[in-house]
Amino acid sequence: MPAPDTPERPDLIGRDFSCPVPTAKLVGDTTYRRTTAGFIYLAVAHDLCTHMVVG
User: Which of 2, 19, 42, 49 would bridge 6 by S-S if both were Cys, CB 3.0 to 4.6 A apart?
Assistant: First the structure.
């Protein structure tokens, strides 16, 4: 959860997930998971046209 004093992040794609050409709209997410060896971190970039993970 973000801190209460964190500024609001803008919605840069306006909730429009359609895309006519590859790489015109990329969205991303980060997460972490606890493992027996510690934490692992995952960052993903997703192409909204091809629905492929690109990074």
Answer: 2
